[in-house]
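Hi U.,

Before I forget, here's the chain from the pilot set. I'm dumping it here mostly so it's searchable later in email.
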Amino acid sequence: MNTPIRTTMLLKQQNKELVVSAFREIGQGTRNEIAQLTGLSISTCGNIIRELVESGELSQGDMAPSQGGRPSKIYIYNANTSLALAISLVANGEFNQIELATVNLQGTVLVRESYIKSLHQLSFEFLDSLIAEQFEKTPRIKVIGIGIPGMVVHGEVLYCDIEELEHLNLRDLLQTKYHVKVFIDNEMHFKTFGYFQAHSNFGLKNYALLNVPEHYIYGAGFMVNGHLIRGNANFSGEINFLPYVSSRKELIEQCDSDSTFVELISKVIITIITITDPLYIILCGFRFTDELVLQIQENVNKVLPPQLLPHFHLQQDISDEYLTGIISVITNLLTDKEPYSQP
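Structure:
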């Protein structure tokens, strides 16, 4: 009985997204111009534009020059009507690196700040104080997105390189306090998605991203046919559970020694290739060096036939892609899209 209603609501939302995307692309335009860009009727565009003006997402400008008929009003996209806050957390040796970026509806970074905090000083209270400060400066924040170096399920941090955040449901805590959408995910999903966004001109659709920081456990992310694989419980990429070591402590110890590191990572990469068959393997983190990557490639070449071998690419620092991934996700959420949907 409710199917026609749901279908109508879905169609209306899709039409709205088309109109908003058109305005984001051109910045301003008339009903006729938006109708031509979207393929929707002028009346449909007019109804949606009226709603967007009422919500403040559009403002009315001057009249467009007449083309012989009745002049049309120009509507201007207000990208700063609603804002979002991106936060990336990185455990780095004795210190934590925290980056914050406030972005608008177009994903444009308006404010970007960085903090360094000793490993045991980053508490929820400190993180909350940074967020509260941003809300005081920019009360139009409607979405918060946070990347965590650990495992996150339904907003709860099950384990984390920053121990003070373990077993906290950051999503619920922050949503309760700030009454905005909050999206928490592990850093590997954001880094993998951000790499896709930052390097879209290369047409990358099938790759695995393997991250090995110094003195911490490794993680991975997988892009298959242009879609990020997160899994049923957001567990995809938690490769530290592969049965090559008995504990997280042993994993870190093996990664600290070059010989055991090369052997261990070679096994991990062979496993990844046999499961996801990526075209590229992106190696990230400062534990990797050019020499070690060559040794790993040699080990993989001994096991797999040459036609199955992916292209290896080393990029030690992926912090920009990390933040790009969070920004892409929260921009989607600002505009009522799925978090990891593509433009």
